[in-house]
Amino acid sequence: MRIAMLTSNYKPFVGGVPISVERLAEGLRRQGHTVFVFAPECGDCADDIWTYRFQTVRPLQSGGFRFQQLFDQTVYRIFPTLGVELIHVHDPFLVGHMALRLGRKYHIPVIFTHHTRYEQYLHYVGVYAAAEARARAGHPVTAGLLREVRERWLPERVAAFENRCSAVIAPSESMRQELLRLGVVRPVQAIPTGIPESAFSWDAAESVRLRRQLAGDRPYLLCTVSRLGREKNLETLLRCMVLLKEQIGAVFRLAVLGEGPQRAALETLRDCLGLREEVTFCGATENSSLASYHRASDVFVFTSRTETQGIVLLEAMAAGCPVVALRTPGPQDVIRDGLNGFLTCEADFAPRIVELLRSASLRKSLSSGALYTARCFTADEIARRAEAFYCEVCAGWYSPARRALLAGEASCADSARGRGPLDSRWGQ
Questions:
Q1: What pLDDT is recorded for position 68?
Q2: Which of 260, 265, 334, 365 has its CA 20 to 30 A from that of 186?
Q3: pLDDT tens for residues 297-317?
C-alpha cells in the first residue's frame, strides 16, 4: 500500500506527535508498505527520501507548532505523482483540511489520528493567551467566552472534522470513548503509539554511571520525562516532591528529562519549595539514551492530565521501571494498578512512591509487570494493527458501489458535490 502521512508537527521538534508519526511510518515500511511524510519545513535538517517539507509561517509563540503557508503548492504539486492509495493525517486544522481536499480530488480515503486534547494547548495561540491574561485580570465575560471556546466550541469543531474523514484512530480506548461521546460517527479504532526495540535495550554501565551522577549518595532515584510546558502539570509534581520529602526525608533525587518554555519558571518554583538539592532539570535527552536513564531509576513519576496515551510511560516500562501516575484517561489504558505501577490521586501520590521505595520486592514485582506490558506495545505490533485498520477502511472505501461511482455509473450530481463512498460509514 502507498500511504501519505500529513502532519503539522514533525522532527526535529521533540514531542509525542512527531514520535508517533515517525514510528508508525517506519513500522509500516518494515511491513512492506511505502509511506510518504509531508511535514513543515525544518531549515537544514537532513531528511530521508520519503519526507517532503512544505513552507510555514511564524511559530505559535513558543509552542513549537507552525502554521502551514496557505499559498505553498508543494504538497499539491508532489502528491499526484506518488500514486497514494490512503491518506493518514495527524492534524485537524489547516493540514487536516488540506488532506480532505486531496482525498476528495483524488478519491482517496482519509484517516485521522486524534493525538491530543487540543483544548489543553490553546495557551500557545497568541490571541487566546492575550484573552486569558485579560480574564485573569478580572473580566468575567472574557473568562466565560474562553470557557466556551475551550470546553465546547473547539471540541465540537474537531469532532465535525473527524466526521468528514473516512475513519479515526484514537491513541487509547478511553480517548475512543471520549470521541464517541463528542458525536464522532465514523469508525473509531484505538491504536496507540508503538515503542521501538531500542527502548528495551540499555547500557548497564551507563545506567550505573547515571545513577551515581544523578542520585549521588542518596539511595533512591526518581525520573520523569516531559516537555516543560504548562499543559504537563509539572507544578503538581514538584509539590508532591515536597510531601515526599516530608515523609521520608532528603533520601531521593528526581531527574526531570525534557525541555520547554516553562523551564525557568519551574526551576524558580523548585527553589521556592526548598527542593534545589532534590530535583535536577537535565534538559533535552536523546531518545537513544532514555532506556539507560529509566533503568537507573527506581520509579518513574508522572502527573500530566492531558495525555491521550502517555508514550513516556511505556518507554519507562520497557526498561522495567514501575510507574506512579495520576489517575487520568491516558495512563489508565496502560497502567494496571498494583501490577506494573500505581494509579493514584494527587493526595496519595507521595504515599504510593513511599510504598514502592520501602519495598524492594514490590519494586521487583512491578518491574516485571511493566516489562511484560511494554512488550504488547512494540512498534511492529502497532504497525500491524494499523495495517489491519487501513485494509478495513480501504475495503469499505473501494467497495463495488464506490468503484461504480468512480466509473461514472452513479449520479453526476453526487460526483460533482464530492460525495464520499456510498457506504456512509467510510464517507467524507
A1: 59
A2: 334
A3: 999 999 998 887 878 999 999
- At residue 373, φ and ψ (nearest 5 deg) are -60, -45
286 pLDDT exceeds 90? no
Report CA torsion sign: 263, 264, 267, 273. Answer: negative
Distance CA(27)–CA(382), nearest Å, equals 8
Q: Are 359 and 347 in contact (CB under 8 A)?
A: no
C-alpha cell of residue 55? 513552507
Per-residue model confidence as pLDDT tens digits over 330-376: 899 899 999 999 999 999 999 999 999 999 999 999 999 999 999 99
Between 414 and 22, where is the model more confident? 22
Count how many residues are written for the chain. Answer: 428
Q: Can you give the three-state secondary structure of the chain, one letter per residue? A: CEEEEECCCCCCCCCHHHHHHHHHHHHHHHCCCEEEEEEECCCCCCCCCCEEEECEEEECCCCCCEEECCCCCHHHHHHHHCCCCEEEECCCCHHHHHHHHHHHHHCCCEEEECCCCHHHHHHHCHHHHHHHHHHHCCCHHHHHHHHHHHHHHHHHHHHHHHCCCCEEEECCHHHHHHHHHCCCCCCEEECCCCECHHHHCCCHHHHHHHHHHHHCCCCEEEEEECCCCHHHCHHHHHHHHHHHHHHHCCCEEEEEEECCCCHHHHHHHHHHCCCCCCEEEEECCCHHHHHHHHHHCCEEEECCCCCCCCHHHHHHHHCCCCEEEECCHHHHCCCCECCCEEEECHHHHHHHHHHHHCCHHHHHHHHHHHHHHHHHHEHHHHHHHHHHHHHHHHHHHCCHHHHHHHCCCCCHHHHHCCCCCCCHHHCC
Cell 478519491 belongs to: 107
pTM for the whole structure: 0.83
Whole-Å CA distances, 427 to 24, 97, 165, 189: 24, 15, 7, 16
